Amino acid sequence: MAKLGSESDFEIDIFVMMIDPSLYIDESNEKGRGVFANTPIPSNTIIEISPVIVMSADERKLIDQTLLHDYIFEWGPDSKQCCMALGYVSVYNHSYSSNCEYEMDFANAVIRVKTVRNIEADEELFINYNGDWNDSKKIWFDVK
Amino acid sequence: MAKLGSESDFEIDIFVMMIDPSLYIDESNEKGRGVFANTPIPSNTIIEISPVIVMSADERKLIDQTLLHDYIFEWGPDSKQCCMALGYVSVYNHSYSSNCEYEMDFANAVIRVKTVRNIEADEELFINYNGDWNDSKKIWFDVK
Question: How far is A4 from chain B (nearest CA, A)?
Fold first, then answer.
């Protein structure tokens, strides 16, 4: 598979995994840790492609009784499986009007995160835990 | 907290989290995914400092019944807690003679990974799941 910094576009491979080097983790106001970028990032830029660990519906029932309930994603075409995402995917905080969005790639067991508007340097990056950046459906906790 | 690329050494903060930009994830022979570096890295270099999600002994009993059993780390001074590590920490494969080692920082809820010898470009990075790079105690699966 291709790695970052390939010389030619022809070497780009959809299975490549990466975290944009401008991303960093820091404390987020009242929200614990969050993900930030130390440079401006244009809209519609893929900033992270990270692996996930896929589990069954039965495993999900067990995981849901632990703190990881707050971190796992529903997974699979019928959303019955779940996954634990690695990289920084599990560190992004939620916003009902987020500046990033995630895409689940079931075939390759990865989650991609992309910006949905221009990002300023040192701005916190948010995803909407409902999927689409502007989905206002209430999530399972009160947003600070 | 300091972010990567601070202008002054005085800004360095032990709480900084980072993944060396030379690291990438690719397929590892027979072992699924693994972590690699696309440049040489000197011995004794910290290549990753990533957050962990800490859970109790009771939660660990539930997690141990799932695939995440293979990923969690024992945690805490008495090893009774467990944690799920983010970043790439959960992607490193095991070797009984590994080229990297991990350090658990209970106070800051992070795991640091450092090289224990010089690494060549595109060499796979391994940790020893027992902790020390040369600990030969048998782990819970047969190493391929």
Answer: 8
How close does chain B come to A21, measured CA to CA in Å? 6
Reported as a single tens digit per residue, the pLDDT across B11-32 is: 444 457 899 999 999 988 777 8
Is A40 part of the contact surface with chain B (CB cutoff 8 Å)?
no
Mutate which of A12, A24, A56 to disrupt the B interface (most B C-beta within 10 Å)?
A24
- Chain A CB contacts of B20 below 8 Å: none
Report the C-alpha gap between A56 and B139 in whole angstroms: 25
Within 8 A of B61 by CB-CB distance, chain A residues are none
Nearest residue on chain A to B21, alpha-carbon basis: A21
Work out the mean pLDDT of chain B and round it to a whole number: 88
The listed CATH number (3.30.420.40, 3.90.1150.10, 2.170.270.10, 2.30.30.60) that belongs to domain B16-127: 2.170.270.10
Buried b vs exposed e over B17-45: b needs ≥16 C-beta within 10 Å?
bbbbbbbbbbebeeeebbbbbbeebeeee
Please state the pTM of the whole predicted model.
Answer: 0.86
Task: Return the half-sphere exposure (C-beta side, CA atoms, 13 A cut-off) of residue A26.
Answer: 17
Residue type, A49: I
**Number of A–B residue contacts, CB under 8 Å:** 92
E strand map for B18-121: 18-19, 23-28, 32-37, 46-55, 73-75, 81-85, 93-94, 100-105, 110-115
**Pick from A35-44, A48-57, B122-131: least confident:** B122-131
Q: Locate the DSSP E strands across A1-144.
A: 18-19, 23-28, 32-37, 46-55, 73-75, 81-85, 93-94, 100-105, 110-115, 124-127
